[in-house]
Each structure stands twice: as structure tokens, then as C-alpha cells.
Amino acid sequence: MAAAIQTYELQLLSLVGEALAGDLNLATADLDDAASYAVRNIVSGLPLRLLEHMGATNALTAGTGGVAITTNKILGVTRVDANGIIRPARKVPYVLEERLEDTSDLLYAPPTDPAWYPKDGKVYVKPDPTTAQTAAVSAVSYPTIDASVDSTVAGLPDELEPLVVLGMLIWVKLREMGLSRRNSQTELEAITSSGYLAAFEGALPVFVVPAEPDLPTLILVPMNQIPTLSLSSATDSWPTLTLSPSIVLPSLTLPTMGDLPAYVSPDIGTAVGTLSITSKTITDPGTLTLPNDIVLPALSLTTAPTFTDLDLSGVSVPSAVFSYESAGVEPDDTITVTAPLPAYDGPTAFTYDTTHTADALTQAQEMMDDSGIGSSDVEAYIDTSKHLDQARVGIDAIGMELRRAQTSIQDQQVQLQDVVEKIREALGKFNGGIAVYQAALAKEEAEARVDVQAYTAKMQDNRNNLEEQIGQYRGDVDKYQARVNAVVTEWVSEEVQFKLQKWQSQVQSEIGEFRERFNSVVNKYQAESNAKINEHRAKVERVIREFEVEMRADVSEWTEQKKADLQKLSADIQGALGKHQNSVNAVINQFRELSTSVVNEFQAKATPQIQQYIAITGAEVAEHRSKVEAYLNELRTLRDSEIGEFQQKSAAYTNEYQAKNTALISEKQTESRALIDKYAALLNADVQKFNGKLAKARSYLEEAQIRLATMQSFDQKSIAAMNEAKALQAEFDKKLEGYIKQF
Questions:
Q1: What is the pLDDT of residues 483-504, one digit of tens each?
Q2: What does the pLDDT look like over 680-710, one tens digit per residue?
Q3: What's the pLDDT score for residue 552?
Q4: For residues 256 and 136, which has the higher predicted lDDT (pLDDT)?
Q5: Residue 394 half-sphere exposure, CB side, CA atoms within 13 Å?
Q6: Long-range contacts of 377-385 (CB under 8 A, 24+ apart)
């Protein structure tokens, strides 16, 4: 045998353009199996005469157990006889085994003519071998090939070596066919009831149409209590001025001046002493005589004034008569949309008919499971009696069922698309109806707003007319109050304030004049008293000087001795006069102070009484003025209050009517729109969810179609691989047959 250039593995991989662990997921062990398959194919096709170099001997020693043989290709059986000669054994059917031991039978097998027969996977030799007379069975041995190492097969002729690689290639194509069928079966299992079709059927949704909302009815708020203007009557009596106070001023009683002190002159003799010239004496200056008692003036005050009453009879109150009309009949208080709320009338479910699809897939599944061609095990093709032509028929039948299932799925998809289109059409119709209904509702609401606004405008016109009347009345009241204020101001200024101020000024002037006359009298008396004292002092000083002159001429010595006494005498006299003058002035000043205190007390008592009188009179005049102003304010306040209250009620009536009904229209509009929008949104959302679920279900159908297409693709690959295997097998059989014919 010529050695191959490459190992069987490299030769095969070069032919198929594959690498280990490629698309066919070939491993070294797989190529070993492929080589063994090829060699078996070759050996199985050769006659026994061409297999002599591929035999293996199996020895049989003593015993009747036979030897296990796994092939029917027995090259020969031998037995050693008693003489040590190896005798060939003849083959007989195993049913004749008993006759081989019957010496009287023609088929009896003596040691010189042994026989053998196959039975139950073993080869038996007769007579039974012994230790000395052994037997041997030569049978074809199928070698174990290591494709990654071997490039030849022991005992195989060189001419048949190429058939090993060709047989391996047939094995690979059969493996490719089996893998494609396995993949096809996997796709089919993913589609059937445990896969996408079950998921599609389970995902089909049921659409529940949401309940239609109960839309609110718009009823306008009626305003039947129209406010009325009713003015209260103010009093027509002017207040009268009554002055309650009268003033009686206190009497002024001046005190009498106390007795003036008597003047006691010092004893002159004591001062001069004893003198021998007794004919010389001091002339007596005479007695100090003060003026007579003071004659004080009298105080006479002017009496308080009287006033003329305030007269407002010439000022008349303005008239307060107003007219106000109703706005008439209110607009219709009920708003109703006659158009019905649209309803959704599209499909709510999709009915899936699984009969044809399930039947076709079940038939295909059963055909595949029962055919035995769904396995990836190549030996399944070798060990069974099925031929490639039979496999081709099975694949074609399965393909027909798959196409029937695909057609059924496509039909379901068409029906599903029709449901989707009907849902889209119904949803569009529903949304259009919602838009029409909302437009009708908006129109009714707009008309209601216009009616409310028109009625409100009419009420406002009537209020504007009343406001003009009220404005005229208020202008008249302002003029009336201005006239009354002018009259009162003039009366207070000219009648009350002027007289009071004049009287107060006269009283103060009279008190001041009395104070001046009193002070003048007291000052005059004090001046005269001081003049008398000073005159007496001058006389005393003159007498002393004269006596001093006389004494100085005659008795100078005595003068020197008595000078101090004279000086003391003069000082005593001056001191006595000063003391007397001070006493007199003290009495006069005490009298002045007492009299001034009395006058001040009188003035202090009289002034508060005068001020109290003026204050009370002013307060009563102010009170009277306040009453007049209160009378005017009563007119204004009462009228303004009632008019203001009416204006507020009228404005509130108008505003409340407009606000309530406008708000009510807006509220009902908002509520209705919210309910409609919510209903439409809910239905649209539910339809979208329904469509989404249908789309999800459709995806399972589409996936099933993809799986069917993939399955068909695997079937085509399987058929292609099968055809290639068939062609290669034909080539293999032709070459093997040609080789056999040569021998």
C-alpha cells in the first residue's frame, strides 16, 4: 500500500471546506466515526475472496461455549485433530447442530471433518474443541481508525484507499442532513402548542368597551329676588340752641391793714451823760406821725353776654325719589345637547381558528417523529432500512404539511389585519363623533353665555340709569350741606365767638384796671409813710449835729470823751428809725401781699368760672353745631347707607347672576369636557392597548412564519445534503463495483 500524503482528517476537511468545530460542529471523534463508517462501507461491499487480508483469528479452547463474532463475514473455521492436523470446518445451519454429534447421521462431524454453525452472535465448532484439539474462527475485522493520525487502513488494498475519504464525505453529508432535520424539528417544536402558536392564542386580547359617562345637565341659576330701593325719612326739625350755663362772679373783699407800730426814740440823756454845763441840752426832734389809713378802690365787672338762636329755616332738604326698573325675563335656564354621545362599535375580540394550522403542524410533527430522520445521529441512517429516496419522500410530505400550516397562518394574519383595520375605522368614527358632540356642546354653552351676558348688560343699563339719579341726589345733598355749614359757621363766628371773646376781654381789662388802681393806692401810702419816717430821721440828725456843735465849742474835752456816746446815740436813733421804718414797711408789704393774694385768689376763682362758662357755652354751641351736622349727616349717612346698600345689592345681584351662571357654565363645560375627554382617552387608550396586544399576538404569528421559513430552509439544506450524499454514494458504489469486477 502506498502511504497517503495527508491524514484522513486533513483530506476530508480540505474537501468540505470546514474546520473543526465549524458550522457542522465536527470534532476529531466525529471524523474517527466517519472514517470507521467509510471502512465499514467498503468492507461490507467486498466479497469474502477480497477480504482475506482483513481477517482476524478468534481461538476456541476447551468447552462448548463458542466464540462471539460480531460480523457475518466469516473467512474460515478450522479445528486441530488428534494428530495435530489443522482441519477446515464446513458450515451447516444451526438448526442441524444436533445431527453433527450423531455418529449415525450423514452430517456427523468427526475430528477429521469438523463443522461449524453461527447461532446467537456466536460461532460453534463440532466436535467441541479441547485443550489439545483447539479450533479457530477467522472473521473480517473492522479496524478502528484515528482520522487525525492515520492515512491508511491495514489490510485494505491501495486501490480502495480513495474510497475511505469518499465514504467519510458521504458520512459528513449525512450528518449535515441530520443536523438540518434536527434544526427543522426544533423550529417545528417552537411553533407547536408548546411554542409560538400557543403564545399567540394566549396573547389574543378581549376588548371591553368602557362605560359611557353620565354627562351633567346645565341648569342656570335663577335670580328672582330683584333688590328694591327704599329710603328712610330724615327728621325735618332743626335742632334748637339752648344755653344752660349762667355765671356769677365771686365778690372781692380786700383785707384791712394792721396797726402801724409806735416809734420809741432812745433816751438822749443816757447818751450824753452828766455835764457841768447843765444849760446845754439837745432839742427834741418831735413825734413821728404816719399818714392816715389807706382808702382802697372798688372792683366792678361787666355781666356775661346773651345769644340769638341759630335759624336754618331758610335751607330746605333735597328730594330723594328714585326710579329703578327690572331687566325683564331671564334667559332659558336649561341647556341640553340633543346629539347623542357617540359609542364605539368596532370589533372587541379576534377569534383564532387553530384547526388547519394545528392539524398541519401535528401531521408534520408526527411524520418527523415517526420517520426517524429527525435525529442528528448519522448511524440512524446507516443502521435502519430506510434509504435516501424514502427520506426524500418523507421530507417532501413534511414540507407539504408545513406549507399548509404556513398558508393557514397567513390566512389568520389577513383576518387579524382586517380586525385591526376595522378597529382603526371604528376608532376614527368614534373620535369624529366625540369632536362633533363637543362642538355641539360648545355651541350650546356659547349661546348660554351670550344670553347671560345680554341679560347682565340689560341689568347694568338699568343700574347705570339709577346711578345717574343717585349722583344727582348726592350733588344736591353736597350743596345742601355746604349751605347749612356756611350758615352755622357764620352764626358761631358772629353771634357766639365774637360776644364771648369781647366779654372775656372786658372782664380781664376791668380786673387789670382794678389791680393797677389798687397798687397805685398802696404804693402812694407806702411812699408817704416812708417820707414821714425819712423826715423825722432828718430832724433827729439835725438836732444831734446842732447839739454836737454847741458842745464842741465849750467843752472840747468833754466832747472827746463823749463823742463815742453821741455817735452811739446817733446810731441808736438811726437804728431805731430804720427798725421802725422796716416794721412799717413790713406791715405795708404784708398788707400788699395779703391784698394781692386776695385779688389773685379772686382772679383765680373768677377766671376758671369765666373759662368754664365760655367752655360750657362753646361746648353747647359745638353740640348744637354737631346736632346740625348730625342732621345733615343723617340725611347723607342714612341716604348713602341705604343707597349704598341698594347699590351693593344691585351690583351683587348683577354680579352674582353673571358670576354664578358664567361659573356654572364653565364648571359644567369643564366637567362635561373632562368626562368626554376622559371617556375618549380611556377608550382610545384601551383600543391602543388592545391593538398593542393584537400586535404582540401578531408577532407570535410572524415569529411562527419566520420559524416555518427557517424550518423550510433547513429542509432544503437537508434535501441538498441528502442529494449530495446520494450522488456520492452512487459514485462510491460504482467505484467499489468496478474494483470487485477486476478480481
A1: 777 877 877 787 777 777 887 7
A2: 888 788 778 877 877 777 777 777 778 778 8
A3: 65
A4: 136
A5: 19
A6: 377/178, 378/33, 378/37, 378/171, 378/174, 378/175, 378/178, 380/178, 381/174, 381/177, 381/178, 382/37, 382/174
Distance CA 252, CA 630 (A): 44
To the nearest 10 degrees (0 to 180), the angle between helices 161-191 and 196-203 is 10
Q: Are 455 and 657 in contact (CB under 8 A)?
A: yes
Place 94 in a pLDDT band, splitting at 50, 70 and 90.
Answer: very high
Q: What is the DSSP string of 243-257?
A: ------PPP--PPPP
End-to-end CA distance of the chain, in Å? 17
52, 75 Cβ separation under 8 angstroms: yes
Cα distance between residue 24 and residue 38, in whole Å:
18
Rounded to 10 deg, the angle between the 196-203 and 639-742 helix axes is 160
Question: Which cell numbers hold the place of 32?
Answer: 474517527
Taking alpha carbons only, the member of 599, 602, 651 closest to residue 467 is 651
Residue 219, H or E segment: strand 218-219
- CA-nearest of 478, 395, 407 to 725 is 395
Q: Tell me the C-alpha distance between 155 and 425, whole Å.
A: 81
Q: Please check whether residue 337 is in contact with residue 440, taking contact to mean a CB–CB distance below 8 angstroms.
A: yes
From the list 330, 327, 329, the residue with the least C-alpha distance to 221 is 330
pTM across the whole model: 0.45
The strands making up 122-126's β-sheet, listed across from edge to edge, are 67-68, 122-126, 115-119, 90-91
pLDDT at 375: 44
CB under 8 A, 24+ apart: contacts of 168-171: 168/8, 168/12, 168/31, 168/34, 168/35, 168/37, 168/38, 169/12, 169/15, 169/16, 169/728, 170/37, 170/38, 170/41, 170/725, 170/728, 170/729, 170/732, 171/33, 171/34, 171/37, 171/38, 171/378
152, 4 in Cβ contact below 8 A?
Answer: yes
Name the residue with cell 471502512: 39
DSSP per-residue codes, 64-82: SS-EE---S-EEEEEEE-T
SS3 591: helix
Separation between Cα atoms, residue 672 and residue 439, nearest integer Å = 12
In whole angstroms, what is the distance from residue 624 CA to residue 552 CA?
92
* Residue 286 banded pLDDT, cuts 50, 70, 90: low
Which triple of cell numbers denotes residue 597? 393774694
Q: Do 190 and 707 meet the contact criterion of CB atoms below 8 Å apart?
A: yes
Highest mean pLDDT among 30-39, 201-210, 535-544 belongs to: 30-39
